[in-house]
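Marked as duplicate of an earlier ticket. Keeping the data here for the record.
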Amino acid sequence: MYLQIDKIKVLISSICFSSVMSSCTKFVQIEPPTTSITGSTVYSNNTSAAAAVTSIYNNMMATQGLSGGINSISYLDGLEADELKNYTNDNLTLIQFYTNSLTSSSNGGSNNYFWQELYQEIYVTNAVMEGLNNSTTLSDSIKQQLYGEAEFMRAFFNFYAVNLYGDVPLVTTTNYQVNNTIKRTPSTQIYQQIISDLKDAQNKLNSSFVDYQGLSTPERIRPNKGAATALLARAYLYQQKWDSAMAQATLLINNPQYSIVNLTNVFLANSNETIWQLQPVAPGYNTYDAQYFVLTSAPGTGTNYVALGANLLNSFEPNDQRFINWVGTFIDPSSNDTFYFPYKYKVYLNPKPVTEYLMVLRLGEQYLIRAEAEANGAGNGIADAISDLNVIRTRSSLPPYSGATDQASVQTAIMHERQIELFTEWGHRWFDLKRTRSIDSVMGPPGYVCRDKGGTWSPNWELMPLPLNELEVNPNLKQNLGY
C-alpha cells in the first residue's frame, strides 16, 4: 500500500503536552519519549509505552480529520446522506460530497479524505502491537491493557475503512514490502479480523475506566472492555448476526457503569451514557463539531458552510425533545430566513474549563442495536424490540410506540429512531442507508438527480473511490466500480 509507511515516523513528541490547553494534561500526564513509536526503547517502560498508545487518541483529536471538523466522517458523510445541506459555492470537497460526485482524482489527485488517516493509524496500532509483543520489561497488567487498546483501535479503523470503501487492504504488519503491494481483501474477511480483534481486546481490557498507569479514573477517554463490547455489538449488527449483537448490547445495558441520561447531559465530558469519548487537545476548542456546526452567521458565510437538511428536520415528531435540545436555530438578520444546525455540542467559543468531549460510543446506540436485533428474531423478538425502542422514545418525551407490530413496521420505526437519535454522529445515517438497502429510496432512482441535492445518483456512489495516487503506485489495488 502506498503510504511509504516504512518511512512514517509518528513521533510521540507530537502528543500534546505543555503546548495545549490545561485539560489535556489529564489525558496524557506523561513526558514524551524522544524516539518514534517503532523504537524498541519506547516499550522498555510502562510510561513511554502508554505514550505510544496515547498518541493514537491525540492524533485523532489534534487534526481536523477523521473525528472532527469539516473533513470528519460526521461532517462529510452527513453531506453524503440526507442530514446536512451544503451552502458553499467554492469548497469543492463539500460540493462533491453533497452531490455524491466524488472522483478518484478529487482533492488534487489524492482523494485522501479518510484513507490516509485510517491507514496511518492502522500502521501505528500495528507498530504498537509489535512493540508490546517484543517487550520483556513492561508490567503484565499494563502490557495487556495497552495491547487491548491497540487491538480495539485497529478494529475501529478497519470498521470505518470497510464501510467507507468496501473491500480494503487488510494490513496487520509494519512490513512495508508487504504493505506497498497489498491487494484488497473481501469485506467478509475484514469483518472477521474486526471481530477477532475485538473479542481478544475484550479479554485484555480493564472493565473499569483506567488511566495510562492502569489506575481507576473518572475519565472515560481510554477504551475499556465496554468500548470493545460496544463496537463488537455494532459489527455483529452490520453482519446480521442478530443473537450475537443482542448479547453484546445486553452486556452494556445491564452494566451499572452506563445509563441513559437526560438529553442535556449526553455529550458532556464523562456523562454516564459515555462508553468512550475523545478528550479535546487543541487549544481553544471543546470539539471541532461545535466549531463548525454551530451557526453564528448564515450558512455559506465565513466557516459556516452547512445547515441541517429538510429531510432530517421533517423527520422529527412533534414535541420530540431532541429537536429542542440537539437542534439550534439561527435567524439571518438580513433576510429573516431561519436555519437549523446540529447542536449536540454547544461550546464553540474559547472554553475554560473544557466541559464537552467528543462522543464516539454511547449507550443510546446499544439500545437501538438490541432493538434491531430483536426485531430480526433475537431474544423474545418484537415485544422486546418495542420495549428497547421505547427507552429511547421516553428519554425524548415521546409516547410509546403504538404502530403495527409486524417485523417490517417495527424495523422501520427503529431505523427512524436511529435517524433522529444518531444524526451527525460518525456517519451512522449513511451507513444505515447502505446496509439496509434503503439508500435509493432516499437519494432517488439511479440515473436521476439526487433528491434535494443535485448530482446524478448511482448505487456505485455508496462506496468512496480509492485515491488515484494509491492506484498509480500499487497495481494490485483495484478501483471501486463507477470511478
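See parent ticket for discussion. DSSP finds 19 helices and six strands in the chain.
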